[in-house]
Amino acid sequence: QVQLVESGGGLVQAGGSLRLSCAASGRTLSNYAMGWFRQAPGKEREFVGGITASGSNTRYADSVKGRFTVSRDNAKNTVYLQMNSLKPEDTSVYSCASASTAWVPLLEGLYAYWGQGTQVTVSS
Q1: What does the alpha-carbon distance between residue 37 and residue 23 come to, in Å, rounded to a whole number?
Q2: Which of 18, 50, 83, 108 has a CA between 20 and 30 Å from the CA of residue 66?
Q3: Phi, then psi, of 44 in degrees rounded to 5
Q4: Euclidean distance between CA atoms 35 and 108, whole angstroms
Q5: Confidence band for 29, pLDDT divided at 50, 70 and 90
């Protein structure tokens, strides 16, 4: 069974940082792009950032570009989301997802597996 488990969420002050981790089992992530998504209460889930299978390229939503960084350690079968300069509007449940492709899709339907999510709350 393929499982993705996020960790590292919590409460942080505006301007602070968090690093989220996504550990996978049942699937070797090195062949697939990984994405991070977030969904706040009452809002649609949105793409945050992603990384190609090899880690050679990343892409980000404009809202987080320059503040968030996606990375991966394929030896550990783990991907990360480093979040810096956090803002209250970043408050959301963050989920990682494993794509069906080596490149980074923007559409949720192109991700085959999803984690349960981890809560990130940014206070003022």
Answers
A1: 15
A2: 108
A3: -75, 155
A4: 9
A5: confident
Separation of alpha carbons 52 and 50, rounded Å: 7
Provide the phi-psi class of 66: left if phi over 0, else alpha when psi is between -120 and 50, else beta. Answer: left
Q: What is the mean pLDDT of residues 96-117?
A: 95
Q: What tens digit of pLDDT does each residue of 43-79 get?
A: 999 999 999 999 999 999 999 999 999 999 989 999 9
Strand partners, 73: 78
CA distance 104 to 107: 9
Burial code of 17-33, b = ≥16 C-beta within 10 A, e = fewer? ebebbbbbeebebeebb
Question: Strand 10-13 vs strand 111-114: parallel, antiparallel, or unpaired?
Answer: unpaired
